[in-house]
């Protein structure tokens, strides 16, 4: 829900002109403001045909910029946003100077934008607010209560193109060749640089043929050749262990997000219950949403 609301807001922001993006890379020096400069939300930063553009307009647009533009220096943003707003007003005035005369599509979009902006404020209250530590701990305890340890494996492998090549290397290893050195010299995948070491992995992280082979091996055993979609493998099982439940610190961000979502959904259900909502779209064919001629 949060992503939908925010996406709705960003969709209403005009695209920043390429020229501004280029200028932003090498902004012109801006004079430093006076230490006692006074301003408020109504401070006029530009006028177009007598219509004021205020600092509040600039701040509202800045909040809705994509992340890459948020990182620009403030001087660059101020200059660029004021120019963007001025250009928008010039273009807008060429079509309509009175809201009553705005095209129907504009009026409908403004209605949608207002709803989205207000809804986003409510959503942000729940999605960015603090979460009670006791609630986090309780949610964590509930999750780990049902945790079931699963086997995990630490394995190394050698990957080659043909079965014959794999058999030849297996014979060398059985004859005393070091597995890691053999992997470094012969394996065709990126793990060769680490002597074939793949690290720890659990169920579902490897292709089925590889996983089945490892699950049936003993610690220190070398098995193969095993064919997978990637080629032919020789596998060495270095160690095994049982998976451990994640620590609270490791999953705290996910738990906090989950609790915020639950709080938001509870508030949404409360508001739905308190409101008179009547959905009457059943009589409208679904294809009607693509009938743009209705907006003309």
Automatic annotation (TrEMBL):
Gene3D superfamilies, A to Z: 3.10.50.40
Signal sequence extent: 1-21
Keyword Transferase: no
Keyword terms of this UniProt record: Isomerase, Rotamase, Signal
MF-aspect GO terms: peptidyl-prolyl cis-trans isomerase activity
Domain of life per record: Bacteria
EC number: 5.2.1.8
Catalytic activity: [protein]-peptidylproline (omega=180) = [protein]-peptidylproline (omega=0)
Domain PpiC: 150-239
Pfam family, one: Rotamase
First-tier enzyme category under EC: isomerase
Protein family according to the UniProt entry: Belongs to the PpiC/parvulin rotamase family.
Database matches in PANTHER family: PEPTIDYL-PROLYL CIS-TRANS ISOMERASE HP_0175-RELATED (PTHR47245:SF2), PEPTIDYLPROLYL ISOMERASE (PTHR47245)
Name the record gives this protein: Parvulin-like PPIase
Source organism of this protein record: Rhodovulum sulfidophilum
Classification lineage: Bacteria, Pseudomonadati, Pseudomonadota, Alphaproteobacteria, Rhodobacterales
């Amino acid at each position: 829900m949060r992503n939908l609301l925010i996406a709705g807001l960003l969709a209403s922001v005009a695209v920043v002109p390429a020229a501004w993006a280029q200028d932003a890379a090498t902004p012109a020096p801006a004079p430093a403001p006076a230490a006692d400069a006074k301003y408020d939300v109504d401070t006029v930063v530009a006028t177009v045909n007598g219509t004021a553009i205020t600092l509040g307009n600039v701040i509202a647009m800045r909040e809705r910029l994509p992340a890459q533009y948020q990182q620009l220096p403030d001087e660059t943003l101020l200059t660029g946003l004021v120019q963007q707003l001025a250009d928008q007003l010039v273009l807008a005035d060429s079509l309509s100077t009175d809201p009553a005369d705005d095209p129907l599509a504009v009026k409908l979009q403004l209605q949608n934008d207002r709803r989205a902006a207000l809804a986003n404020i409510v959503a942000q209250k729940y999605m960015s607010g603090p979460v009670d530590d006791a609630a986090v701990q309780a949610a964590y305890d509930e999750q780990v209560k049902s945790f079931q340890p699963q086997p995990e494996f630490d394995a190394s492998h050698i990957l080659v193109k043909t079965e014959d090549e794999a058999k030849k290397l297996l014979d060398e290893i059985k004859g005393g060749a070091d597995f890691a050195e053999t992997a470094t010299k012969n394996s065709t995948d990126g793990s060769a640089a680490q002597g074939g070491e793949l690290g720890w992995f659990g169920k579902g992280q490897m292709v089925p043929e590889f996983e089945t082979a490892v699950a049936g091996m003993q610690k220190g055993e070398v098995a193969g050749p095993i064919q997978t979609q990637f080629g032919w493998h020789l596998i060495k099982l270095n160690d095994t262990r049982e998976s451990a439940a994640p620590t609270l610190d490791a999953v705290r961000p996910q738990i906090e997000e989950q609790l915020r979502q639950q709080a938001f959904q509870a508030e949404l259900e409360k508001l739905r219950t308190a409101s008179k909502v009547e959905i009457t779209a059943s009589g409208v064919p679904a294809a009607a949403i693509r009938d743009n001629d209705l907006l003309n």
